[in-house]
Design brief:
- By secondary structure, the protein is mostly helical.
- It has two domains: about 1-100, RNA polymerase sigma factor, region 2, helix turn helix motif (Rna Polymerase Sigma Factor, Chain: A); about 100-185, Winged helix-like DNA-binding domain superfamily/Winged helix DNA-binding domain (Arc Repressor Mutant, subunit A, Orthogonal Bundle), CATH 1.10.10.10.
- It is built from ten helices and no strands.
- The radius of gyration is 18 Å and the shape is elongated.
Length: about 190
């Protein structure tokens, strides 16, 4: 396992536009990117896993000069950056009117086990998905991290650089808005 000093040296070289150092650093942490992309890929319409990883590679390279290693580890920064890029791709879909399918939303908001063979479940599934796409970005981010990626509150707080209490508050707000919208449709 590479030492922190090795990582710090690679980071500094990568910031100085050493492409080999950047690719080595990215490769060492590719498991972070891969796990996030695999969780988001079913929801991101029109992209395959390789397209998204290429987008993340490019955008991470562009954003690396803004990385401050004294405030956060590279792994945590990459996690947050990757999540942000995936959320931005989801947001683009919302702007062009595409639905975002979430496998767990029926269970989380309607209290029903998800079964794609049941018409009512499918209707609820799309209603909830549509409501979720209209949530403000900060609420959509915590809901996506909680219900799509299955992160715990403290992991979400680290990924978004906010307090755990803020995570809980935003999830509660999102849940309330989704349930309220569902009740309006009944």
């Amino acid at each position: 396992m590479p030492s922190i000093a090795d990582n710090n040296e690679l980071i500094e070289r990568a910031k100085a536009q050493d492409n080999d150092a950047f690719l080595s650093l990215f490769s060492r942490n590719s498991h972070v990117v891969d796990s996030i992309v695999r969780r988001f890929i079913p929801q991101i319409i029109g992209y395959d896993e390789e397209d998204i990883i290429q987008e993340i590679l490019l955008r991470t390279y562009q954003m690396l000069p803004y990385f401050r290693g004294n405030e956060v580890s590279f792994k945590a920064w990459l996690h947050r950056t990757t999540t942000g890029i995936c959320l931005n791709l989801l947001n683009k879909q919302r702007k062009i009117g595409e639905m975002i399918p979430f496998d767990t939303i029926i269970e989380n908001y309607a209290g029903l086990p998800y079964d794609s063979g049941k018409i009512r479940n499918m209707e609820l599934y799309w209603e909830i998905s549509d409501i979720m796409t209209k949530l403000p970005k900060k609420l959509r981010a915590v809901v996506a991290l909680r219900y799509i990626q299955g992160l715990k509150y403290d992991e979400i707080a680290k990924a978004l650089n906010i307090k755990v209490g803020t995570v809980k508050s935003r999830i509660n707000s999102a849940n309330f808005k989704i349930r309220t919208e569902l009740q309006k449709k009944e």
